[in-house]
Design brief:
The model has no long low-confidence stretch (mean pLDDT 94). α2 packs antiparallel against α3. The protein is built from six helices and eleven strands. A hairpin with a 5-residue loop joins β9 and β10. The chain is of the alpha+beta class. The chain has an eleven-stranded antiparallel β-sheet with strand order 5-4-3-2-1-11-10-9-8-7-6, with helices on both faces.
Amino acid sequence: MKRAIPPKHVKEYYLITSANKTIIGQKKLEFVQDKLISFTLVDQQATHLIFEYKLYEQVMQGSSLLHYYSGDMDELQSTLLFKTDLQGNLADLLQLNDMKLKWQTGFEKNLKKKYPKEFITPLLEETAKLLEDKPRLLESFKGYSAWRFFFQHWFREFNAAETELLNLQHYFGNTDLPLLLQRKVTDHAIETTGTLHEAAFDRNAFSRTLKDLTHKYNIDATLDLTQEEQYQFTPNGSLENAELYLSTGVGTWYNVTSAHQLKRLSKQEFQEQRIVLENLKKERALPF
């Protein structure tokens, strides 16, 4: 299968649903978020591509104030320009000054009013630092999140079977999670399963991180891992439907599960879904 670079200035509308559940000891955190977005190729040069991302609506339902702050950060990043190489690997974030200006001209002030002072003050300070640290900000788009739907070495000829090493940096605090991906490719679909790359995994560092998180020092640090991905494409190469799933756990003491679903929408479906999310946001009161 060969996936071609999409035509310029043709908006692709998507509904993205992300869910996460984190269990550490007796503490459980979970959220579900729906986002209505578009992703559009706006320029193509001999060495790179430029994509425009727009967020039109998002609804967050979580068990922690941090989840709602994360939703607010999505609102801050509602319009972005990304530069990739010709295969689709993320290379740069453009027009960062626009985001800084949005932050400085009312966005930060509104968040101060929205959240309790003791909660919001350190987060605002950290966000301000992040906006001045472009390399670290760019890295935030490269983790195992819904951004993976868009930033991979997509635009190329695929073999029927492929193997790839995916290293998720700082997945466990300061410890990386190296995955060995096995990819099966048909005419318009890709299925991927991942396993732990044992040779590249720093198990001692992971054990120390786990002890710090759980305050337990007699835990068997055997890591249970499930990773799966599915992608379906239209005949012209557009992403039609996709799913990402990653679960890591150690016994009953630690588990993090994240899942992301993407569905391509027609313009009419986009308008209908926008109304649904607008109404849903009105119905869901914030937990503070």
